[in-house]
Design brief:
The protein is of the alpha/beta class. The chain is built from 15 helices and 14 strands. Strand 7, helix 9 and strand 8 form a beta-alpha-beta unit. The longest helix has 23 residues. The mean pLDDT is about 90.
């Protein structure tokens, strides 16, 4: 029996032990997950100390610890030494951003400004080029299995494309994957283990959240200071947490739109070398910048400690499903095996098409067109949403809207959806027990036409300027 009486004792969570054949810690973890997802436990709430829960339930402390650990690995809880255990800020948010995969049914009349979709005008260049390849003799060979290393020609073209991001590597360091999400999954599954901790920004690309949760890897937020983090905050975090890796988006960060300073890049690279920490550098948006604006990547500063991922989805086409990895030689074989185990083969047709687009100069032409369209759309957004939109470089394909005090990101997302526009709340990007700003991210390239894009912005402007009460469905 418990030593203490808990009849009138304030506890934020008073679970009951169900009658089940499964281990108690698993049943307790399942109950905790259910109470978080149904809203009984709200994001940010502090759970009772583990010893108190153990006494309350009359079970071993280790059982509570195992249950909490399971939920931590799923991203539901955030624990820090000396502060306690909290329900994660993004625990109840959906991290799957493509419509049709979410639980919520797709409304075809919605103006899509949530998921990041490149404009479609350049698609005909790619389909025409692909048809040319398919008309060649022996083109059916591209339907066979292929290696993640690609051919010599494909590697040389990949090197050329990486150099535009100021990433210089040997051909035997280059791998191909079926997009950056596939690359991230293969890197995490091959180089990290269940229970490992990877530090990243407190608001982060949701795709890394879903992969980490699936693999039981914990993402740990680096505390922010004036909208970014400092090397001191990273160093202090590593003193209390056994950090095995860093996941960073240095250029046009998703969702904050920040570009990391050169000074911070140098300090992170030095720190990674000092602590022998692996950096995963996601350069998905880097080549949206003009060539003269591209800063040296972390990979160039810590080449033996950085895996560099450059997806073609935002610069050329998401339909190609190709990402290029620049991998330190000591990790190349492990990641290549993981790509094989995940997908057996990277599409030879898509890899060849991407390589030829780069070699012919058409990839740069598409990249320039995309950048010009982004600049045009940003000019309109900066005008219509002045006062709410976070300042950012004109080539960035994202914008963060800072909301009036009567909105949260989640409530604004719901209101925008009722008004016919899909945007994504900051809560969707949150990890750990971090502060979530009242903000939403908009993807400016997603509406198919400029006219539809303008209509979406005007709807958002109406919501932002309307001080009346709202009903959130």
């Amino acid at each position: 029996m418990p030593i203490n009486s808990f009849d009138n004792y304030p506890m934020s969570w008073k679970p009951t032990l169900p009658k089940t054949n499964q281990p108690i810690y698993q049943a307790l973890a399942a109950q905790l997950e259910t109470d978080i997802k149904n809203g009984t436990l709200q994001p940010g709430i502090m759970l009772p100390p583990q010893r108190e829960l153990a006494d309350y339930l009359d079970i071993n402390l280790s059982t509570i610890s195992r249950a909490f650990k399971l939920c931590e690995q799923k991203g539901l809880l955030s624990a820090s030494i000396g502060r306690g255990t909290f329900v994660s800020s993004g625990a109840r948010s959906n991290s799957i951003l493509l419509n049709g995969i979410n639980d919520m049914p797709t409304n075809e009349s919605l103006i899509e400004m949530g998921a990041i979709l490149p404009t479609l005008e350049e698609g005909k260049i790619i389909t025409d080029y692909m048809q040319t390849i398919l008309k060649e003799p022996n083109s059916n060979g591209y339907l066979n299995y292929s290696s993640p290393m690609g051919s010599n020609f494909q590697q040389e073209c990949a090197r050329e494309w990486l150099e535009k991001g100021r990433c210089l590597v040997d051909s035997d360091q280059i791998l191909f994957s079926n997009g950056s999400q596939n690359a991230l999954c293969c890197i995490l599954s091959s180089l990290f283990h269940t229970g490992d901790k990877i530090a990243t920004t407190s608001l982060v690309y949701p795709g890394i959240k879903t992969i980490a949760r699936m693999l039981g890897i914990q993402l740990v937020p680096i505390p922010l200071d004036m909208d970014t983090f400092t090397i001191d905050s990273l160093r202090n975090l590593c003193k209390t947490e056994n950090i095995k890796g860093l996941y960073l988006i240095p250029d046009y960060h998703n969702p904050t739109t920040n570009t990391m300073s050169q000074d911070l890049r140098k300090k992170i690279a030095s720190f990674a070398k000092e602590k022998n920490i692996l950096i995963i550098e996601d350069a998905i948006n880097t080549l949206l910048k003009g060539d003269s604006l591209v800063l040296p990547p972390l990979q160039s500063l810590a080449p033996e400690h950085t895996i560099y991922i450059m997806s073609l989805s935002k610069t050329i086409s998401p339909g190609l499903r190709i990402a290029i990895l620049a991998t330190p030689k000591q990790y190349a074989k492990k990641v290549a095996v993981a790509i094989y185990n995940n997908t057996i083969a990277v599409s030879a047709l898509m890899t060849e098409c991407a390589a030829r687009l780069i070699h012919s100069g058409l990839a740069d032409e598409i990249r320039t067109r995309r950048r010009d369209e982004i600049i045009k759309r940003n000019e309109l957004a900066d005008t219509l949403l002045a006062g709410f939109i976070k300042p950012c470089e004109k080539e960035c394909n994202l914008r963060l809207l800072n909301l009036p005090s009567y909105f949260t990101g989640t409530s604004f997302e719901l209101c925008a959806r009722q008004a016919g526009v899909q945007v994504y709340a900051a809560e969707r990007f949150a990890i750990g027990n971090c502060h979530v700003p009242p903000a939403v991210r908009i993807a400016i390239t997603s509406p198919e036409s400029f006219e539809e894009y303008q209509t979406g912005l005007l709807q958002l402007k109406k919501l932002l300027n309307n001080t009346n009460d709202f009903t959130y469905l």
